Amino acid sequence: MKARFRGLLYTSAIVVVGLSLLSWAPRAGRFYGERNARILEIVSTYNAEKLALASYVLYLRSGLDGQIYSIAYTGGDPYSMLSLPPPSSWAGWMEAKLEEDGWNASVQATGHLSELLFSTGGIEEQNRCARCFMPSKGAPRITGNLYISISGIYTLKSSSTRVDFVHPVRIYALYKVGKAVDTAVNMTIQHSWRGENPCAVASSVEQFLLEKLEQTAGAKAAQYGMIHLRVQYTITVTVKRRLAYSHHTDDGTEYTYKYTVRVSISYSTQVTDMKPDAKVFAAGSVKRVTWRKSDSKSRVTARWYKTTTDHLPPVTRTCVRTGTYTG
Amino acid sequence: MSRLRLRSLLVAAIDASATLAVCMFILASLYPTVVRSYDELTVVKTAEAGMKLVNYSFSGKLLRDIWSYCSGVPASQIASQLAGQMSDEDRVQVSFAGSEAGSIGDINGFFQLHVKAYGRSIEVEVREGP
């Protein structure tokens, strides 16, 4: 009887202790010390702010990817066509997400798009985030600020972080090399071409064009480095001779012939950024960017030739040369 | 009531009191340790989860995974790879765009990352266990 009673007491004591332990057992999300809850909020606000910055960088990068691909594909001008995705759109969205996570948040973002005018050696963490491992001259650079104010139960953290990252694709450089090709073709066309043999003229035109391409576009591509340039051209030279007019003099009949040389150059330019990280995600896959443009230019040069010889029949002769320049 | 009965009751009461006193002492000693260690573990694990996401984002791996996801790679596959990279003795659970990978018992800390890119809203969450 005595032993049974004692056993009952011991059992009761153990049950009481067990229940006490269960009621005191820690549970997720419940803090027993205010100091630790404060520390957690400080840690969390720091991480939330860093992650918001990463999110902003990725938002801007994704917005630029599609535009860069489109501009390059259509041979457009990035100086007038490339624009920053609206920062306010992301800021409003992020603010709502932070509030969903239980923070009282205020987010403001600004951004300015410009051309990177020098290659940078160090890779900042924002560039790594945007997968730009070689920030190089001629690429779009985004600078701005990110203001975040986050408050929890115990803490309030307001901060302004400088946004400064570079897109890996040098779209401005590709455009400039492409425009240098236009310049080389213009210089070739503007030259005063003469001759009666169209193939000889076409050969001279080709030599001249290749020299100018080397001096302008090729030199510019080499200056930027890791840019592949390919120009496919077709040179068409048409030489025409026809009698312009004739008049009678005391010495006989004088014939004036008009010789015209029409030089036309059709060309297609492809400028590709060969930098290893110079890729965009567009139309469902990761792509290397090639700025491409097709155009044609022509010019007619005329000269007159007087002779007293017999009437010469009109002549039209054409010669076509095609080729490719790579640089 | 006989003297013997009274005596046995007294002994039992003393025994019970002694047992309770010992139990209360043990509990009182354990309470700050258990509670403080739990709190601190939560702080540490939340910080770890947040830092894992920060490193994941700023290393460029996040963007690569978003590209994969937008290319059609299943979110479950990405989450599984991510859990493998982030796990420390299988104590991490990862959620990528709604798909979860890795398994833990209790959650001691977690952190979320929200990304709006390529026309999609993607959430990545890391949960840390004990």
Describe the structure.
The complex is a heterodimer of chains A (327) and B (130). Chain A is an alpha+beta fold and 327 residues long. Chain A has helices at residues 2-24, 34-74, 78-81, 87-100, 125-129, 171-190, 198-224, and strands at residues 104-109, 112-115, 140-151, 156-166, 227-249, 252-273, 279-282, 285-288, 290-307, 315-326. In chain A, strands 1, 2, 3 and 4 form a 4-stranded antiparallel sheet that branches. In chain A, strands 9-6-5-10 form a 4-stranded antiparallel sheet. In chain A, strand 5 and strand 6 form a beta hairpin. In chain A, helix 2 (34-74) packs antiparallel against helix 4 (87-100) and helix 6 packs antiparallel against helix 7 (198-224). Chain A is rod-shaped, with a radius of gyration of 37 Å. The mean pLDDT of chain A is 88. Chain B contains 3 helices and 4 strands, in the order αααββββ. In chain B, a hairpin with a 2-residue loop joins strand 1 and strand 2. The radius of gyration of chain B is 26 Å and the shape is rod-shaped.
SSE blueprint and pairings:
The complex is a heterodimer of chains A (327) and B (130).
Chain A: H1 2-24, H2 34-74, H3 78-81, H4 87-100, E1 104-109, E2 112-115, H5 125-129, E3 140-151, E4 156-166, H6 171-190, H7 198-224, E5 227-249, E6 252-273, E7 279-282, E8 285-288, E9 290-307, E10 315-326
Antiparallel strand pairs in A: 1-3, 2-3, 3-4, 5-6, 5-10, 6-9, 7-8
Chain B: H1 3-58, H2 61-71, H3 75-86, E1 92-96, E2 99-101, E3 109-117, E4 120-128
Antiparallel strand pairs in B: 1-2, 1-4, 3-4
